[in-house]
Amino acid sequence: MYKISELAKQVGMSRTALLYYEKQQLISGQRLENGYRIYTHKDVQRVRLIQQLLAGGLTLKECKACLETKLDRGILKNRLDALDREIEQKQSSRNLLAALLGEGELKTWHEKLNKVAPDIHTDWLINQGFEEKEALRLKWLSKDMNEHDKYMDDFMRVFQGLARWGPGSEEDTLKALRHVPKPIRKILEIGCGKGQSTRVLAQNCQAHITAIDNEQSALDAVSEAFASINKTDRLTTNCISMTDLDYPRAYFDLIWSEGSAYIMGVENALRRWRPLLVKSGTLVFSDLVWQTDTPSDKSITFWQKEYPDMQTVSERRNQIQNIGFKLVSDFPLSTKAAENYYEPLRKRVKALNTNSLSVKAYDDIEHEIDIYTRYANEFGYHMFMLQKL
Ligand SMILES: C[S@@+](CC[C@H](N)C(=O)[O-])C[C@H]1O[C@@H](n2cnc3c(N)ncnc32)[C@H](O)[C@@H]1O
């Protein structure tokens, strides 16, 4: 038998709270002749059960119904689902704190943070002392601060040996170019890589091209290619970041970005690049999109890690309109565009991957090629041609 103060001590609650429970008929003490209420061990158990149910998200009224076995199963099921979601979020938060303390698995953490808060993720990496270029590479490629330098050395060893750094073809570039009103005087190409499309643009219009990339070795390759076709006077290269373009407003007739806008987020890129275009100027970009509304679990799992912001074509079309562009046209890149990229990449990794020891960067590239090969009908690159409104 417990007095109310003893019951309060047993269950770690205040006397006032227990009196409220009493008033709500959640517990019911036996009144003694001297006016005191006394409680049994069963009341202790009832209060403990109520505490657990409250922690599970039930209201006092629902707790009462539960104790009287009158609670609707549907309500309990909803609470259970909400609790599961809460636990999942808490687990995520726990992983985040553990990773910040240097515990736990970093790759998963980077993938998670990149999905939930991509811009904060980049800022956080920059605050850790990474240059923006390396922060972006860490976010998209190595996803591991401890292994980053080795990962990037291996990764660049693969790509330095390749002419094309993303899916694309001369035919697709020309097809998109046909939608651009002429004359074109000034083009800004963003994330030009080694200049596969830069060369096609130069050979098919008279514009001056400012080609930017944050990888100087790629820009050197573009300059060399332009020298070999005697078009050096039509090219300016700038080794700068696409996130910080310091050109005059309303300066370029055309902005071209094949497979690079995703790096700073497509929506963000379109918003930030738009002011650089002249009135009614054109922006052409290609991006990886879902080609089905029902992709397989394998593709979803892979792309949620590698490109969490991947959208369907109709989702991208909506975004484009909301940002102040008119969609002129769009089309899926040809199968040849994907082959132009994946085939040489496959051969290059195979040629380099001769050691029996596993190399993370090679494994990741091979994994992407494998996903592309097996699920190619579920996603692919898509070209969008927009006009500034
Ligand atoms: C997928 S590749 C596409 C290259 C090229 N457009 C092509 O199709 O071959 C992306 C390019 O963006 C460049 N890049 C990455 N981050 C960048 C940044 N912050 N600013 C400018 N270029 C960047 C990379 O160096 C690379 O050349």
From TrEMBL:
The entry's keywords: DNA-binding
This protein's record includes keyword Hydrolase: no
Pfam families to which the protein is assigned, alphabetical: MerR_1 (PF13411), Methyltransf_25 (PF13649)
Organism name: Pseudoalteromonas luteoviolacea S4060-1
Positions of the HTH merR-type domain: 1-69
Name of this chain's protein: HTH merR-type domain-containing protein
Residues forming coiled coils: none
GO molecular function: DNA binding; DNA-binding transcription factor activity
Family matches, as InterPro entries: DNA-bd_dom_put_sf, MerR-type_HTH_dom, MerR_fam, Methyltransf_25, SAM-dependent_MTases_sf
